[in-house]
Amino acid sequence: MKHWINQHTLVWRLVLARICRNKLATLLIWAVIGIALCLPAILYVIIDNVNQLAGEVKNEPQISVFMKLDADKATVANIKSLLEKHSGISNLKFVSKDSAWKAMQDSALTDNIAANLKHNPLPDAFFIQPKAHAPSAIDQLQHELQTLEGVEHVLADADWAKRLYSILELGKKAVWVLSGLLGFALVTIIGNTIRLQILTQREEIEVSKLIGATDGFIRRPFLYAGTLYGLGGSLAALLFVNGIITIFNLSVADLAELYGSSFILALPDWQISLGITACAVALGWLGSYIAVNRSLARLNPH
Amino acid sequence: MIRFDQVSKRYPGSDEALRGVSFEIAQGELAFVTGHSGAGKSTLLKLMAAIERPSSGTVLIGNQNVSKLRPRIVPYMRRKFGLVFQDHKLLYDRNCFENVALPLYINGVTGQEAAKRIRAALDKVGLLGKEKAMPITLSGGEQQRLAIARAVVSRPSILIADEPTGNLDETYAADIMALFHAFRQVGVTVIIATHDAHGINSIPGKMLHLDHGKLTVS
Ligand SMILES: Nc1ncnc2c1ncn2[C@@H]1O[C@H](COP(=O)(O)OP(=O)(O)OP(=O)(O)O)[C@@H](O)[C@H]1O
Ligand SMILES: [Mg+2]
Known about the structure:
The complex is a heterodimer of chains A (302) and B (218).
Chain A: H1 2-21, H2 23-56, E1 62-67, H3 73-85, E2 89-95, H4 97-106, H5 111-116, E3 125-130, H6 135-146, E4 151-157, H7 159-200, H8 202-210, H9 215-258, H10 270-299
Antiparallel strand pairs in A: 1-3, 1-4, 2-3
Chain B: E1 2-10, E2 16-25, E3 30-35, H1 41-48, E4 56-61, E5 64-65, H2 74-78, E6 81-84, H3 96-106, H4 111-124, H5 140-152, E7 158-162, H6 170-185, E8 189-193, E9 206-211, E10 214-216
The complex binds adenosine-5'-triphosphate and magnesium ion.
Adenosine-5'-triphosphate is lined by residues 11, 14, 17, 35, 37-43, 86, 195 of chain B.
């Protein structure tokens, strides 16, 4: 155990000494990784914020169920009890044809029209607020209601929600694609940096192999270095992201005030920060692992 | 301990460096490999240390067939050997102390214990005063002695030296030979390749003479 600790502290000392010797280069790598990581992170933060904002908006999707004109009281009561029990519905409002007719006659805007009509043309109607706001869920509910006995027409005013959701979905996909591409770039950047280091340490690696170093022994300092690049890069990214959003919020706050809203972009929470760090560390490790293994393969022809 | 059985070695794109070589070296024995330049001395030593593999025949170290070793095992096999390379293979960006430290670190020996053994090894080859010096500032002979210090520091059971006295004047060459002899006396198997025959007459040992890759028993 002591032996193991000794060896690892030795490697860390070696790696840290190398980093200290190349301060500028290390800072540059951290900055590059930081910039690469902060692009998807910022996009994510924006989408996450808009998503939350969308959830808070009062303008919730509404489904209107219009009954057939000849639907009798029993059918309507039947449907009413069915809808009341339905698990996908959060709020139900029933407007009978009589009350709608009365409202029409009472309203100053429509009393002319009502006066010209001989009898009530309006159907019984239900106005529903669904629990799930996702367009697919609303679609499904709409189709389900359409098949009910005595229902003439179901109108879902979900277009607004649909559009917002599809934009958000698109944004999420963009975050994934961007993260994927930049993750790949990260592996490449770190891998290449490590490859250059391996080149300068070629002799040492060769000699070490000749006198009995295992691949693990040779890999270790490079893996630690790659991991440190990932860690430093992710910390730089968090610094950038928090800095940029804070600056951004100064203008957003002004703008929001004009609209009487107190909306500001929330900074990434600790889970997101931890996630970014973990990803960067893992990718740094991966990049250096690939680079060292390729060099080792070249050194071991057997 | 070390057994070669009808070993041939052909490097890609060149003639056979060794042809049907068979011999045996017992544990604790001292053996000299002699022969003209290009006779195959270095090749023979590399086959022993599992650095090269034979094209045909078998190389047995202990009871292990070197050509059948799994790649994972090879490093542990090599740690049994102390190797002095013909071209030294010193690390020129590390000082003498760090050069000698390398085999110990590979074996997982660090700290005070390592420092003690490194100084002892440097002392044996007369370089104790130069532990902070960079190898490039050393003379040819001093570099050679540094390479020897690195080979012996991890107390290997087999010491293989390729032309270890090539750059040394006679007194140092005699000192180094005496050092190898001392190792032999504590039970280390020692194999030395050399092209100059007169340096070795003072020490009794097995002679393996190579001529164009063929072993001629003398
Ligand atoms: N890596 C290699 N690739 C191709 N040919 C090689 C290689 N190493 C050695 N040879 C060839 O094998 C033959 C034996 O070489 P080796 O190095 O074993 O000779 P040597 O006896 O050590 O000579 P010297 O006294 O000059 O060191 C030589 O003809 C050489 O050209
Ligand atoms: Mg040679």
